[in-house]
Amino acid sequence: MAHSYDAVVVGGGFSGLYAAALLSSKGQRVCVLEAAPHLGGRAFSYRDPKTGDEVDNGQHALLGAYAATKRFLTLLGTLSQVRFQQRLSLPFRTPVATLHLETPNLPAPLHLLFGLLTFGGLSVGERLLAIRFGAALFFGRKPGASETLQEWLTRAGQLGAPSERLWTPLAIAALNESPERASAMLFAEVLRRAFLSKASDSVIGLSSVPLSELYVRPAESFLTSRDGAVRLRSRAVALVRRSGRVVDVKINDGNTLHAGAVVLAVPPPAAGKLLLSAGLSAPWVGTMVERGSPILSVHLWYDRPVIEDRAPITGLWGSLIQWVFDRGHLSLVVSDSRAFALKTRAEAVQIASSEIARFFPLARTAKLLSAAVRKEPSATFAGSPEAQAHRPGPKTPVANVVLAGDWTNTGLPGTIEGACLSAEAAVAALPPVG
Fold first, then answer.
1. Is-cis flag, bond preceding 361, omega within 30?
2. Collapsed DSSP state (helix, strand, coil) of residue 403
3. Which of 39, 162, 321, 355 lies 20 to 30 Å (CA to CA) from residue 247?
4. pLDDT tens digit sequence for 267-309
5. Structural class in CATH, domain 2-45+210-289+384-429
């Protein structure tokens, strides 16, 4: 049986749901196909079977600079569920002390200048080096397209503490890659957007509700209330092209959807296969853009609070664990988690709990009640210079099929904001209906 839609969106993550909501808001009848049993892609929440808590599959932080993400959440009516800081305040922890990177109430980039001047994690000379680095970027001195972050930091004299305590933690969080592999150009763009435009762009925002409540369920309701549809466990297996347009999407259950337009909001290997099924080119197939970088999340439940100041987010220096989020339970994030690839669940929990005890003394006498581990082997595309060179734009060889996803050429690494920007670009690239 065939159903007809103005648009079929393949993939139900951030980019797919935003693209679907945008098209639906324009009066189009939209169907979202999602191969998994749930929407949300790599950013959703689930019910932990032991504690009963609804837990994000990986902790996600937003920045004030995430304008497209804010537009998506505004469209859904859930932006108020994100709690943004009034000004940037980011604690970094060592086993013996906590140091804060805080910015005063000044316009950008002066807020960053004074924040670095008072940052106790660096010596006076190191702070001046970091300020010089930021100033050079502000005045237009950018890295080369083929330059890695490590090469750029070396050339800019940022080795030692400025790199280890400031730029590298921020880069791994933003790019999910080590400095040796990460694109310097992508990191420069992150710094420019976050710190060099408006002071409010630098602040961190955390959802006060689980991710599925923030955008997944609201997006589904938004679509279905406008005569749209969501099909779970429905994998698109082929596109059918006639007269220079894709007209049908075949699904793994044997059904076919007639489509006026198609948005491919899936990872690059899946998007490539679908384009090739219709005899269309996918030049990124087989390139670095198809290789993903992993993220590991470990959730720990203790019988008491173990972070003294209950800071919602804390960076750890000198640890395999880069970030700790206090969500009632602790949510630990290991970006670029290749070192954990062969670790068992028990080994990952042991490493994580040992690190928490090393950095937070209260944890040494607390009882660990429960733990959960989530591995995302390809959480983001590999944010390397080689991958950057092959990222496609939203257009494909046929006008009514477009690409969306944080892996497309948004100018940003694999972030929620990149996913939302890609959705806007994809919808804008489609020809007008009728």
1. no
2. strand
3. 39
4. 999 999 999 999 999 999 888 788 888 899 999 999 999 999 8
5. alpha beta
